[in-house]
Amino acid sequence: MDCLFCSIVKGEIPAAKVFENETVLAFLDVNPLTKGHALVVPKRHFENIFDIEKEVLGHVASAAKELSQNMKRGLGATAVNLVNASGPDAEQSVFHFHLHVIPRYEHDDLHLNDWWQGKVRKAAPEELSETAQRLQKL
Ligand SMILES: [Zn+2]
Q: What's the predicted TM-score (pTM) here?
């Protein structure tokens, strides 16, 4: 199987590692949005949120927390965004689960609002309760 992140985990492709334990590896994104932008990946291959084991996901989340704290201490980040894309319609590009940990800085000129606030709309209460029921019934 030809997987970029599996190759990084195996050490076949070099990466700037920032965190590692038995289950998880984190390394710097080669196309960073901000200084320190990192990816946390499970060492075992999972495609995305739909097939990753809950326990492994827990390890990924713990690593993201530790990394976030290190970004504050080591890089002077004042905030952080966590982003995951799962599935082609979410614009997932590498099909090995990865959680982006994007350190944020005052005046870093990155505006999540461009992506988010520009597209949101007001939902009617009936629509919200109908949608919530659909998710709860499963
Ligand atoms: Zn992989």
A: 0.93
